[in-house]
Amino acid sequence: MAPTSPPVSVRSSAARNRAGTVELNVVRKCYGDFVAVDDISFSIQPGKIYGLLGPNGAGKTSTLRMIIGIIVPDSGQITVFGEPLKREHKDRFGYLPEERGLYKKMKVLEHVLFLAQLKGLSSAEALKRARTWFDRFELSAWTGKKVEELSKGMQQKVQFIGAILHDPELIVMDEPFSGLDPASTVLLKDVLLELAKSGKTILFSTHGMDQAEKLCHSICLVNHGRVVLEGDLNQIKAGYGRCNVQIKYDGDAHFLQESRLVQSFNDYGNYVEVRLAPSADAQELLKLASAGARLSKFELMEPSLEEIFIDAVSKPAVEKTNA
Amino acid sequence: MRNLWLIIKREYLERVRTRSFLILTLLLPAIMTVVMILPAKLATMGEKAQHVVVVTSTTQFGEMVRQRFLSAMTATDNDDDDDAASSQSNASKPKPEQEYVIDVDANPTDAERDVLRDKVSSQAIDGYLWLTDDAIASGKVSWTSRSMAGFGERARLSETLNRILQYDRLSSSGLTAEQTERLLKPIKVEAVRVEHGHESKGSGGSKFLEVVVMVMLLYMAVLLYGISVMRSVLEEKTSRILEVLLSSATSTQLMAGKLLGVGAVGLTQILVWVVLAGVFAFPAMAMQPSFSELQIPLGVLFAFALFFLLGYLLYSTIYATIGAITTTEQEGQQLQFLVVIPLVLSVFMLGPVVRNPDAPAMVWMSMVPFFAPVLMYARIVVQTPPLWQIALSLLLLIGTIAGIMVLCARIYRIGILIYGKRPNLPEILKWLKYAKA
Hints:
The complex is a heterodimer of chains A (323) and B (437). Chain A is α/β, with parallel strands linked by helices.
């Protein structure tokens, strides 16, 4: 158990009053008896990167699909750009689905132009922008090839270009990082940060905590269709407190077994990460550890998002009432 | 509108650029032409310059038989000249094809028979006819050749021979040439149909051919493109491109765009066929006298294009629906009977409709949208039905296409949530109610 029960919604009241680019208000979606999305509410501020996190089957994809209007919620309201979703809004957002959706037999460039034109871009403008983006993603040599000739990662980059070519105000992406190599991951991350800087609102789902932690201003953690944790990432982390210690040591490791101080630990080989027991004093652990081992590092840490995630998911979702 | 146009354009280009389009558009008419013209050409080519010997007891009788055979052989090429064939002035008659060389041999001995047999086996001659007075009296005339066919078919040979012998027997029993002529003059029934007060000579056979050509083209086009429509719906669902498209366009736009694109492909196909027919087929047909009857009126040609296109759209729509319901191609192929059964039923009813185009059952059958493309077209070809009937069937057909398309768009939209299992009918009905398109 966490030392302090984290506040579920940590947004300031000032932020709450501003109209978000996307607002969900007690949205619910069932498939038969299965409740995929169980009264989810959150709000995304313009120009922010928002992460929708959760394990597989948590309801992330359903939530995203409802936001862009592919499926209709059973109850609750969704507003986009301050209004209920209308057909005219479709040109103002870009969508990247989880499983890549491209026509296999179509040529890469034609495909991207087709997608951009569906969003209202002229073919000349689309061509001009596509060249720039293909250059940036190192796909220029592939534009004349058929989609099926490309590797999965390349197809994903093509799909991404197709989603953003019309310069949408809102970019919705379902697992954008899955299947990308490290270099492409960095490239995509840089592009997303740039887009956010230029005022675009970005919403993406992931179960990779790493990217979310690096990129997101705010997150929403869902599990079994319910919001477990939602709000500004820094505030969430602050709420969890510094109850983690990273220790690099040589010698006796007995201090790790001290259950009065150590709730759990994770040995990464080069160092060990210790989670302090509730009401334990870090100074006491330092003393104990230095008595038996030679320490080269002893640092109090913010909890990683991964830890927060595991901690939140392993708890029953009692906070629903607060949300 | 912008989206619809883009989707039509994409669907059209995707299909027109495929190899199967090229094959269907260029190869099919070529194959049909070959299938229709080649057998006739080949048959006449094989019979060129057949060398036949007729063995008779007297040279005079042999000469008479030779003349008769030659005139009968040329006459069978064109039924209208039967009268000329039976008249004796066949020497003045132009012989379009010198197909047979007939020699008369008035030496009916066993030795000669052996010589002739050797000649047949050494291919010096193609065959000999043993037509001696004895053979005629015993009724055992024999035709000896290397193959059972040749020299016309055997049936035609005995038919011609019988007429020659009847003529000979009648004249030898004292009747004048005119009397025998009158007695043996064959009757020919000419088929004349009245259309809009005009007589038209086209035979039932060529009318039937016009319908069969349409049915064949429709069948090929439906099977090839229908399946490609089904496949592309399935691809869009399984590859999740549907999600991307739905984030830009509505499912009705997607479905309408797809079907109109496919329809444009069909139209292109017809245009290419018409042009090809104008360039190649018609001169070829004009050369072939039996096809000169196949002059298709402009109205029928228009009806062909219209009903072909609508039939094509109708069945493509059904295929699209199958694609929307199922999740794999195998599953889709199991449901293909939804398309094949109406098509096959139309073909079954083709015969009755052509024979009896006005019977009330046939009239109403041809109104049923699933049969109309074939049956209403058949009725137009055979005997133009009242305009209101054509209009009604067109209206029903277009309405059905639009209706199925809207239903399909709804199923298609919900189909995005299907993984693995094929929905049953109650489930599909539930979706239809639920989906607001």
